[in-house]
Specification:
Length: 614
């Protein structure tokens, strides 16, 4: 007789033998998305726009790499490495075709807490050239990047562990108001951390709870120590950056190639600093020596891992949340899908592997992703081409950046966060839709600036769940089994020979962030199942129904069979901002299928909400 251990081994062996080649191939394609899109890449149509976008992206990667390494309290050269290695890893494992990963302001700020705590700053001048360490850098600088690389390594391990645990499916808890408030608060922290460099002040590193307020208190107490030359150069840099970037956005449709103002500003200020000898005459702090070439791989110092657990969790959560939001936005914009769980693996490996090459924590950035949109990038080939350009910079151009003023780098950081800071405008939108979502945004932002980004994120998620639970305790269910369909046909117009097909979907449950995605998916299944697709395009004004009466406006009459989807909202007793966003997404999806969408039995409050968002 077979023992229990033998039976177990026999069962395992049978399962291994049952694995087919198709199963292995499907698994590889799922975990290595590059194997899907490279064989079908359209070289003729996509290579030129990807090349142009990649070159423009490289310029921004270089400038942000230098700036965010500076923000992370390590030597700027490590920002160049962080703009090279993670990009390659994400292109292999990531699913976002327009996601530009690399150095990121929020994760850099989080890792700076660990760096400053474990390797306190003796001087902020990077020009000191002690050749006792690797790459010709001082031992002090190598210790600092060792801590930052350890944060990246452990943060990536946490993300990979979340992939193994399939926690990507829990991302529905990260609602748009919470993500918006957290990223805005973190951006405010980053701007605050750069104030001392913009003003040319010498200030000790301040961190911990309420550090935001302590920094400004220190600035006002020592306002007389402001360096006028650095302040004027900072103001000039910010004005030039904002002005040119606004013009780029305004005329980007007319001029396909945007003006690389970050690069031009770096070149101009470096030349001015060199010829005017600003480092010694005006005491302007400069970047200093930047070594050539790529480093040999070396494992991060494992001894410091227990001391950077807090920062590693912050990097893992904040970096993933910000990156996933950009990936989902690009997928929605360009009509493809993104696996939330696969993104955990992609970003986890983009942190783990580059940490062996002295890289700071990485994530996707809003500015770089927006650049790919505006320059017409098609795939991750644009990001890979940017790596080629960055490699040229690392081996040839890097040392020429010696004279780059630090206050200019600080200006680039601040202006680069404009997109996140402009999320303050979302407050009006949340107020119009749901006052409670507005209050969650404000309180999450306050928690973020008072404590940290990861604390604000945790508070926002807990607060959102608690409010949903207590807000409608009498709701029967959040299950969409209550969704019912009714279908009939009737004569559309006297002069139209075809019938107009109408489908009524009745929803008898709240529509909130907990079930919004499921509602969207189920509704699309109903549409696809019945083949509600028309070849005749028509425009319908999305409007609400009051007391069951319809007020739709058909712009173009059609002589082929037309379709209407009516959502009966009589049982929809509550929805939040996520629910409203899903309704609007359903409208856009149906519009692309030439299906008219109308809402019935909407209450007065919901009618006003729809009008405010359309």
């Amino acid at each position: 007789m077979m023992t229990g251990a033998k039976r177990k081994r026999s069962t395992v062996w049978r399962k291994i033998q049952a694995v087919r080649f198709e199963d292995i191939k499907a698994w590889c394609l799922g975990r290595l998305p590059i194997l899907k899109w490279v064989p079908v890449y359209n070289w003729k149509e996509n290579l030129v726009p990807d090349t142009v976008s990649g070159m423009m992206l490289a310029i921004q990667q270089v400038t942000q790499g230098l700036a965010f390494a500076f923000l992370s309290s390590v030597h700027p050269v490590f920002g160049l490495y962080g703009s090279f290695f993670p990009v390659i890893i994400y292109a292999i494992f990531g699913m976002g075709r327009h996601v530009a990963t690399g150095t990121f302001a929020l994760t850099s700020l989080i890792s700076a807490n660990a760096v400053e705590r474990l390797v306190p700053s003796v001087t902020t001048n990077f020009t000191a050239n002690n050749n006792s360490g690797i790459l010709g850098l001082s031992e002090f600088e190598m210790q600092r990047i060792g801590v930052a690389a350890a944060v990246s390594f452990l943060g990536g391990i946490i993300q990979v562990a979340m992939f193994v645990l399939q926690l990507g499916s829990a991302t529905f808890l990260l609602t748009e108001p919470v993500i918006s408030a957290m990223t805005t608060g973190a951006a405010t922290h980053v701007v605050t951390s750069q104030v001392k460099y913009l003003l040319g002040m010498k200030m000790p590193y301040i961190s911990g709870p309420l550090a935001f307020f302590h920094i400004y208190a220190y600035v006002f107490e020592n306002i007389r120590s402001v360096q006028l030359e650095a302040l004027l150069l900072s103001l000039l840099s910010i004005v030039v950056l904002v002005l040119v970037k606004e013009l780029n956005e305004k005329f980007h449709r007319k001029i396909k190639v945007v003006v690389p103002i970050d690069l031009l500003l770096i070149i101009a200020t470096s030349l001015a600093c060199y010829y005017a000898d600003m480092e010694y005459v005006y005491r302007i702090e400069v970047v200093g020596n930047i070594p050539k070439g790529l480093p040999s791989p070396k494992a991060p110092p494992m001894s410091v891992l227990p001391e950077v657990v807090t920062e590693a969790f912050g990097v893992a959560l904040v970096g993933y949340v910000a990156s996933l939001a950009l990936a989902q936005a690009s997928a929605k914009k360009f009509k493809y899908t993104v696996d939330d769980n696969q993104e955990f693996l992609a970003h986890g490996l983009s942190n783990v592997i580059p940490s062996f090459f002295f890289c700071i924590p990485s994530a996707a950035a809003m500015g770089r992703t927006a650049l790919l949109y505006s320059t017409g990038a098609k795939t991750q080939v644009a990001c890979l081409i940017s790596c080629v350009v960055i490699l040229v910079v690392i081996y040839t151009i890097g040392p020429l950046l010696y004279w780059l003023p630090m206050c200019v780098l600080a200006s680039i950081i601040v202006v680069g966060l404009k997109g996140m800071l402009m999320q303050f405008r979302d407050l009006k939108k949340y107020w119009n839709v749901d006052k409670i979502d507005w209050s969650i945004w404000v309180s999450t932002y306050v928690f973020t600036i008072c404590f940290a980004a990861n604390v604000g994120l945790l508070y926002g998620v807990v607060c959102t769940i608690a409010i949903v639970i207590f807000r409608f305790p009498r709701a029967k269910t959040l299950n969409l089994k209550n969704m019912k369909e009714v279908e009939y046909k009737y004569k559309a117009e006297d002069n139209c020979e075809s019938l107009k097909q109408v489908k009524i979907v009745s929803v008898n449950s709240p529509l909130v962030f907990l079930n919004a995605r499921k509602f969207h998916a189920d509704l699309l299944k109903i549409i696809q199942k019945d083949g509600m697709n028309s070849q005749c395009e028509q425009n319908t004004l999305l409007c609400s129904f009051s007391n069951g009466s319809c007020h739709g406006e058909l712009v173009q009459p059609c002589h082929s069979e037309r379709h209407i989807l009516i959502l009966d909202c009589s049982g929809l007793n509550f929805f939040d901002y996520t629910g409203v966003s899903v309704l609007l997404q359903i409208y856009m999806d149906c519009k692309n299928r030439y299906i008219d969408v109308l809402l019935a039995h909407c209450k007065g409050k919901y009618q006003l909400t729809v009008k405010n968002l359309t």
